[in-house]
Each structure stands twice: as structure tokens, then as C-alpha cells.
Specification:
Elements: H1 42-48, E1 62-64, H2 66-71, E2 78-82, E3 85-93, H3 96-110, H4 123-132, E4 145-147, H5 148-160, H6 167-179, E5 189-194, H7 202-220, H8 222-234, H9 237-249, H10 257-270, H11 286-298, H12 306-309, H13 319-329, H14 334-345
Parallel strand pairs: 1-2, 3-5
Antiparallel strand pairs: 2-3, 4-5
Length: 350
Amino acid sequence: MRPPAPDNDDTIRIPRGVPLKRRSLLKPLLAGTGIILVPAALGGIWFALKPTNLLSAPIPIGAQTEAQIDASEPCATMVSTFALDAAVIVIDFQNLTTQGLALDRVAALVEKDHLPRDRVLSDAELIQAIHGSGDTIESYYYGHDYQAADLAKFFRLAAQENIQLNPHELWLKALLAQLGWLKPGAVGAIITVPAASGPVTPDMRAVILHHEISHGAFYTNATYRRYAESFWYSLTDAARAAFTGFLGRQGYDTTNTELMLNETQAYLIFTRDPRFFNAQAVGMSDAGIAQLREGFIANMPDFWLRPLANAILPPTPPRTAQCQQARATTPRGTCQICAVIRENRGLFCA
């Protein structure tokens, strides 16, 4: 997938044949490949993708490092605590559709622009919002991050308004209940990443995860949250306006200052891929961005996130291509095929 270097403006160059869309890390780089859904079709889609462990107790939760998550190719949704911070829960979805069905309505409530912050959208309203932004269920976001309080608010409002949630949202609610995050005062963060399939390549998946990990730290480490806030206010008015403009073009609610400074730290420091973020996207020079990065990292609080600020992303294992080929050539039973490859050749696919 991509790409040549971006032009000297505030956009990112799109590969031939791909329609122009707003994009970011949480917003997808490319247009989603899923079917454009109409409200009447949603029930059938939800049923077809119904989680096999829906509302079962308990939902299995392991613990994984960034490299372990990058190397996996889940055939079903996997949940794990992040090895460096047990308060960060990583949901590794098997595809963009499942991820979108579970979390797009949450995104609409918490941080999408021009949408209500005090009520949950109905099915019809959600589809209208998604399509109105030029997106699909799959492309509304490529990765999600939310703190426990916002997730609890979503389910509280949904119950008050008698919103009929889909099976994936109910599965998410069951997970939160298992974690104890539906209770007042819970501290934690959920971050998500989709499997490398469709428009999401293995290297894109690694970039998405790295970005989302920084959001996890922002939500669970109060010292880091205060530091990100102080950095935001240390910027010049012009620099804050530049980042706000960039984020507004991605569909974020620019009236939410905490959202702006949270996304700024994630893009500036933890998204070193020009396909997702570059100096031109915010109308700055490469030297100016480098100076901001250097100053931010030099004064970062000394905790587990700091070494990741300059870390090279874990390499994508060469076995990924073989597993992807198995998935592409055998639509059914792909999990079993990957398992056979793993057993016979010492590879890990799922």
C-alpha cells in the first residue's frame, strides 16, 4: 500500500484508485472496504458477525507486549492487558467491521465532531453520521481509545434512553462489567487495533497500535496526562491552531481541549509514519516538528511510556505474508489453516 512522499500542503497523498477521504490514525488512512450499510441492513450484519463468546463469563484476558500483539493475527476478537500497564486493555479485533460495530457508536458520543455529547445515537442516526462524514462502519476509525469513565457513561446513557445495542456493544458491556469499569471511579483505558486484513497492512497495524498505546498511558497515568496538558499550553497560539486544524479535518471535536492535547501527543510523538502524520499535515516544517518532538521527549515523566517515544516499531514477522496468503486463498477455515502453518513450520498466525 503506499506511498510516495506527500506534497507540500496539508494533505497526505492517496494511492491511485483510492477515493479522497479525511484520515488520521484513529481515522483510517484509506477508505474502508466494507459495504456501505443502510439502517435496515444492520441487524443482519450484526447477526452474521455475532461474537462466539457473546455475554459468556468470563471473557478470556491474557497479557501481551507490543511485539506480541504486532505478531499476532487473531481469527476472533482477543482481549489482553498491556504488559507494561495492566490498567490498559487491548482489544485485538479480527477485522474492521467487528471493531466498528462494537465501538463506532461510542466514538460518536465521545469525540466525533458535530454530534451530541449528552445522548447516544440511534441506529439510524449513527448510520447517517457515519455516511455524512463520508465513511463506512469499517472506516469510521481504524483504532479506538477510551477511558473507563467515558465507556461507563455510554452504557449509562444507552440504558436511560432505551437504545437497543447490537451484540458487539453488549459484548463490550460484558467485558467492562467483568473489569469492574461500569462502577463510578474506575480507572482504566481500552485501546483497539484491527487484524492485518483488507486495507490494513501489517505495518499499518503496528503504527496504529503504537499510537493507541500512548492514549492508554494518557488515560491511566495522571502525571503523564498533566505533562501533556502543560506541553499543549507551552505551544504558541499558532502551533495549537495548526494541530487543532489538522485534528478538525480528521473529524475530531475541536471544542474538546483534552481531546486536542491527547491526540497531539499521540500524533507528534508516537506516530512516526508519514502516511499518518507529517509536518506538512499541520503546515509546519520538518525542523519545527523535530524541535517540538525533542523538547517533549526531553522532559517526559520517567515511566514505561518514555522509552517508547523513540522506539523503533517491532518488525513485522516475515511469517505474516504466509498467513495472509492462507487467509486470502481460503475464505473458510482460515484459522485452521493458520494453525496448520504454525504447527508444521513453527509459525504463529492466530
